[in-house]
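Summary of Year 1 activities. Much of the first year was spent building the evaluation harness for sequence design. The harness presents a backbone, in tokenized form, and records the residue chosen at every position. We chose the following record to illustrate the format because it has been used consistently in internal testing since the harness was completed.
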């Protein structure tokens, strides 16, 4: 049976970035295990593709995500330039539709500056100034951030994989994890095809399955999760340039992970609206499931436990998800939501669905969404759970921080000098 020093579960942007750092700074036997045939087959390859500037992230409650996102912009840019991956400086205007939402934009401007964003990159505009930039946008005011980028995270993850392989990481694909035998001599990982490997230490970055895997290590047992499918519609080419900047609107319910659909400029030049947030039973229910709203809700209620079950008794939450279901059943409902700030849109401008992706927010035992990433250490394992948006943006710096934590815990010893100098570990850690 093959034996590794470190096994990383999950070949998304997070697991692959962690493998980059370990293989780059240590002579250890490292592997990345994924049940798919390659990296980035799930959330990391099915997201909006925005490199977010962290102006909308609370510098206290979302400190790690905000710092990681801020520092990672330059790191991704370097990789994108080197590998000719699209890096389109499209910018974002976050729009307020009334005075109350404008107050949120003022707060975002302050948060952004606290998170390190320069003042002249976060400009508050009145509706006339927004119109001068985007004549088809209607709003009360806007916060213009020039540094938001449109890229392709699937390609970037493949590029990190290539470097990681050069540094001798082994990628093990098409191995779906069944169970673990964990004892003082290490962990035996058993796959569904009855094969097994061993490792001395395990890092769980399995995205939508990471809570389930952490529970197999008797961690976070009272937590639960929900899966929300984000769907998109692609604007027909004649209408793709109606607006040339990303347009986001202030979230109506920031306590719930429902981003109201936005207008997005994709790295391949197309424009899309989305995503909504439709509850689905698994982290991979990319199509189907929604039949009629009451029976779908009751079907979901049946399979939920713990905090997630409590949420289904919260009338505000139920009313919100009913709204989200409607935008899944009907394209018109989604287009109408975006028409609040791009009134010129019409439902018949969108004839093709985009690629949907699934978020898996974690719910605490008392029934609230957990705002930041959760990290838990087992006896010989480390688990990263609730790694949601803007997780793709922040992956290079966040994964360096994970390495630093493993060094502090004595899991990783003193590193050798970096084999690959794409990203500089010490400089990231100094700035976090
Ligand atoms: C709709 C949507 C839009 C988003 N837009 C953005 C954006 O614009 N910008 C941004 O920064 N972030 C965005 N995000 C968030 C971002 O995409 C995620 O935070 C990030 O991709 C998570 O990466 P990951 O590696 O943790 O998970 P994943 O990419 O899901 O990787 C987990 C991997 O684990 C593997 N795995 C799971 N279970 C097992 C098992 N049992 N055995 C073996 N392998 C297993 C899976 O196959 C998968 O490859 C968005 C997310 C969604 C859902």
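For this record, the design step produced the sequence shown next.
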């Amino acid at each position: 049976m093959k034996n590794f020093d470190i096994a990383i579960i999950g070949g998304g942007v997070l697991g692959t970035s962690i493998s980059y750092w370990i293989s780059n700074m240590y002579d250890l036997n490292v592997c990345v295990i994924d049940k798919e045939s390659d990296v980035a087959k799930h959330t990391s390859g099915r997201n909006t593709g925005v490199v977010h500037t962290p102006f909308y992230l609370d510098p206290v409650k979302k400190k790690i995500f905000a710092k990681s996102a801020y520092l990672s912009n330059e790191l991704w840019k370097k990789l994108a330039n080197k590998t000719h991956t699209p890096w389109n400086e499209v910018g974002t205007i976050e729009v307020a539709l009334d005075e109350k939402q404008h107050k949120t934009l003022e707060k975002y401007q302050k948060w952004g500056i606290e998170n390190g964003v320069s003042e002249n990159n976060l400009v508050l505009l009145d509706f006339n100034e927004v119109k001068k930039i985007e004549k088809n946008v209607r709003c009360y005011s806007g916060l213009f951030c020039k540094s938001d980028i449109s890229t392709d995270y699937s390609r970037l993850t493949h590029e990190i994989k290539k470097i990681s392989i050069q540094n001798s990481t082994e990628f093990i694909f098409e191995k779906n994890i069944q169970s673990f035998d964990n004892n003082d001599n290490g962990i035996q990982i058993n796959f569904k095809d009855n094969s097994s490997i061993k490792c001395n230490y395990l890092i769980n970055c399995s995205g939508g399955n990471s809570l389930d895997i952490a529970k197999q290590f008797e961690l976070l047992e009272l937590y639960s999760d929900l899966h929300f499918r984000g769907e998109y519609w692609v604007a027909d080419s004649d209408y793709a340039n109606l607006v040339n900047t990303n347009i986001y609107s202030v979230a109506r319910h920031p306590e719930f992970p429902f981003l109201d659909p936005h207008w997005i400029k994709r790295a391949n030049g197309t424009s899309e609206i989305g995503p909504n947030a439709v509850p689905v039973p698994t982290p991979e229910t990319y199509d189907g499931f929604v039949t009629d709203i009451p029976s779908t809700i009751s079907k979901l209620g049946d399979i939920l436990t713990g905090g997630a079950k409590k949420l289904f008794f919260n009338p505000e939450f139920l009313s919100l998800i009913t709204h989200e279901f409607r935008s899944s059943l009907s394209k018109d409902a989604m287009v109408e939501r975006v028409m609040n700030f791009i009134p010129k849109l019409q439902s018949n401008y969108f004839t093709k669905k985009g690629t949907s992706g699934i978020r898996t927010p974690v719910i605490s035992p008392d029934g609230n969404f957990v705002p930041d990433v959760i990290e838990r250490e087992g006896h010989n394992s480390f688990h990263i759970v609730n790694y949601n948006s803007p997780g793709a943006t922040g992956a290079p710096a966040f994964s360096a921080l994970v390495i630093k934590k493993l060094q502090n815990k004595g899991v990783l010893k003193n590193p050798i000098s970096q084999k690959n100098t794409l990203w500089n570990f010490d400089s990231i850690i100094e700035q976090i």
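The two ends are 40 Å apart (CA to CA). Quantitative recovery figures across the full test set are reported in Table 2.
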